[in-house]
Write a structure and sequence with these properties.
Helices cover about 40% and strands about 15% of the residues. It has 13 helices and 13 strands. It starts with 13 loop residues before the first helix and ends with a helix.
């Protein structure tokens, strides 16, 4: 059954359809001008010298770690409260994720805990802008500089946001965006690596294309392409097609409008739910320009995981999409089996994860839909309170 109000819904306009049609009628479905234009748009938006399009945000994180020299025996400090890809990518390289607990307000890694987790084997900090919130990224950047290790920025949830005027994607030595259909913009599947480091950019360009040697750039500042049959390193098929890039170009051309619409939707949720004491709303400080990826609320601490799950099921019974965002990575079966994690390892992240509810959120969600979701959520919470009394 399809929810009447889904959890997410991509917005594809005639502009994107026209660009895709243009690609399909051309003879360049891959490694063509749309990929180059999309890269240029992202680089300009984030103020970075290089942008490298790849097949997914996960692929981008994998390449970013490899380009920073991360490998077997290394440790990478990261968060347990994220989509699992941010940690899986560390394992792909043979390195070990070292989790630290989160700040209870921003839901990002707590910088004080990051410092205490750094050891002689630490080779990078991988910080995630959870739900598009860049708080503490400057602190993580300072810690990385202090310990002379790279900050790798998982910006997959934060395109278009900023902290104190500094764009998400510009804090790390390298940063990665993702363009899955529930993101601010989508390419269907796709990701983008951004950096000011020439060596990292060239390594990522080569590795995304089976490790091919790079041709000299056609002009100063132009991307170097790996088109020969000489392979200088182990590589992967992580390329983005021009069809995917065409979607991205169309969406980037109207990014400001997309961000504004999502900000208005978030504000409307805030207005309708701010009087509900059972709900903890997202906190955005005055220095943050939030890029709203999802709209996630938390139930108050007295609520149990079982009560949260019943509330989610109640929303779904009313054809309203809802989900728990995110289960903690360290408590996923694979991580528990491999590393021996037990509940209580990271109590703030765990307490948060047990009470989160992602509500329907997408660029063109209507006020009527937001009002219906909010009223139904309050009704489901009220039913749980009646059961307690």
């Amino acid at each position: 059954m399809i929810d009447d109000i889904p959890l997410s819904r991509p917005e594809i306009t005639q502009d994107e359809l026209a660009l895709v049609d243009l690609v399909l009628r051309s003879d360049r479905l891959a490694a063509g001008p749309m990929v180059e234009e999309f890269e240029a748009l992202i680089a300009r938006r984030t103020g970075r010298r290089h942008a490298v399009a790849v097949s997914s945000g996960t692929a981008g994180l994998h390449l970013a770690l490899l380009a920073c020299g991360i490998g077997p025996g290394d440790e990478v400090v990261t968060t347990p409260f994220s989509f699992i890809a941010s940690s899986n990518c560390i394992l792909y390289t043979g390195a070990t994720p070292v989790f630290v607990d989160i700040d209870p307000v921003s839901l990002n890694m707590d910088p004080a805990r990051v410092e205490s987790a750094i050891t002689p084997r630490t080779r990078a900090i991988l910080a995630v802008e959870v739900f598009g919130n860049p708080a503490h990224l400057d602190a993580c950047r300072a810690l990385a500089a202090k310990h002379e290790i790279p900050l790798i920025e998982d910006a997959c949830e934060g395109l278009g946001g900023a902290w104190r005027g500094r764009a998400i994607g510009s804090f790390g030595r390298v940063a990665v965006f993702g363009f899955y259909p529930n993101k601010q913009i989508t390419t269907g599947e796709g990701g983008m690596i951004v950096t000011d480091d020439d060596a990292i950019a060239d390594a990522c360009r080569s590795m995304r294309n089976q490790g091919r040697a790079l041709e000299p750039a056609a002009a100063p500042g132009a991307a170097r392409l790996g088109m020969s049959f000489r392979h200088d390193r182990l590589g992967f098929n992580y390329r983005m097609s021009d069809v995917n890039a065409a979607l991205g170009v169309g969406q980037m051309r109207r990014l400001d409008g997309i961000l504004e619409a999502r900000d208005l939707a978030a504000r409307e949720y805030m207005r309708l739910l701010m009087d509900t004491s059972d709900i903890i709303l997202p906190t955005v400080d005055g220095d943050t320009r939030m890029s709203w990826f999802v709209f996630v609320v938390r139930l108050a601490d007295e609520y149990t995981e079982e009560e949260r799950d019943r509330i989610i099921e109640g929303l779904r019974r009313h054809d309203i999409g809802a989900a728990a965002y995110f289960p903690c990575i360290h408590l996923q079966p694979f991580y528990r089996a491999r590393f021996g994690f037990e509940p209580g390892s990271f109590p703030i992240a765990e307490r948060t994860a047990l009470r989160t509810i992602a509500l329907p959120f997408f660029t063109r969600i209507s006020r009527r839909e937001i009002d219906l979701v909010s009223q139904t959520l309050k009704l489901m919470i009220g039913r749980e309170n009646i059961k307690r009394s």
